[in-house]
Amino acid sequence: MAFDSVLGHERLKDSLLRTIDRRRLPPALLFCGPDGVGKRTLALAVARGLLCARGAGEPCEACSSCVRIQRGVHPDVRLIAPERDSIKVERARDLVHEICAVPYEGRAHVFIIDDAHCLTEEAANALLKGLEEPPATSNVILVTASPQSLLPTIRSRCQVVRFSALSPSIVARRLQETAGISEQEARMRAQLGDGSLGAALALESEGRGRLRERLLDLLERVEKMTMIERLESAQQMADADVDLALTVLRSLLRDIETLRCGASVLLNLDVVDRLRALARGDLGRRALSLAETIGEMRRALRGNANRLMVMDLLLGALHRDVELHDSAPA
Ligand SMILES: [Zn+2]
């Protein structure tokens, strides 16, 4: 069932299902919480719950509505995502137009705005009109890992639904079940993913291979890098997928620490020789505390800390310019 397929968040799923069942779902919802914990998936489950041909409530997954929502082709369910990191005013205006109209065929009209923090200020102001008094058939769900970046006027018009990070044991079980990963590796990945299934899964993607190569190269050079080179690297990291970069970097540091302690269960077994060389150097002695610092940085970034500033601090910590206890912004 759609709601069951979303990992964890049991109480939250129950209460959403109950409000759909009673047709009391608030017209504007704000789903916020860490990336990769199921916010968008649950928003789509809500859409199915509202539009299922068998009636509002737990969706059947088999009717034409459920199937088309699953495939992303239902005319009454719109999923809006940023284009080049922003959702511009033109799109917001079109959206308001649709929000104020009646559904095409179903009894509800669902608008899911993913990464809603990417709305430009102009777009957010335009969207306000759609959130003021939407028709009873329209439901808007804003999804974001960074709710504090939304205009307060947008936030105040939404009922806030907070998602917490998933417990590592839940993530590990899912990895074992769906990705066929060994128990030990699943547990390691779940820890590194910090309660995000998305991050734990991303540890194996194709882009991750290239990223890891760049980060490994960075670890090998960082102690000799000049200030300018470090600033350039920090900028490059801030421009990329920071969350993934930090997850991968942490997996490398974790392996370096593991090798230093003489253990052999590694996440990056194919580059063991390079990791072993790093474990013998100064970085080896600092790997554990650096990995912890990275965990703190990821949490700071979820709290909307400045990406470039955090990356500057990270490069400084890797280079040993910055004392570790100063390197994680509050
Ligand atoms: Zn259905």
Largest sheet: 5 strands, parallel
Which ligands does the model contain, each kind named once? zinc ion
> What does the overall shape look like?
globular
Radius of gyration: 22 Å
Pairing-aware structural class of the strands and helices? alpha/beta
Mean pLDDT: 88
Helix content: 55-70%
CATH class of the largest domain: Alpha Beta
CATH superfamily of the largest domain, by name, is P-loop containing nucleotide triphosphate hydrolases
- What series of H and E elements makes up the topology? HHEHHEHEHEHEHHHHHHHHH
* Strand-residue proportion: 5-15%
Low-confidence segments: 323-330
| Total domain count | 2
Main sheet: strand order:
2-3-4-1-5
Q: What is the oligomer described by this structure?
A: single chain
Reported CATH architecture of the largest domain: 3-Layer(aba) Sandwich
First-to-last CA distance? 40 Å
The name of the CATH topology of the largest domain is: Rossmann fold
Number of strands: 5
Give a structural overview.
By secondary structure, the protein is an alpha/beta fold. The protein has 16 helices and five strands. The protein has two domains: 161 residues, 3-Layer(aba) Sandwich (Rossmann fold); 122 residues, Zinc Finger, Delta Prime, domain 3 (Up-down Bundle). Helix 5 links the parallel strand 2 and strand 3. The longest helix is centred in the C-terminal third of the chain and has 21 residues. It is globular, with a radius of gyration of 22 Å. The site of zinc ion (ZN) has 8 residues, from helix 4.
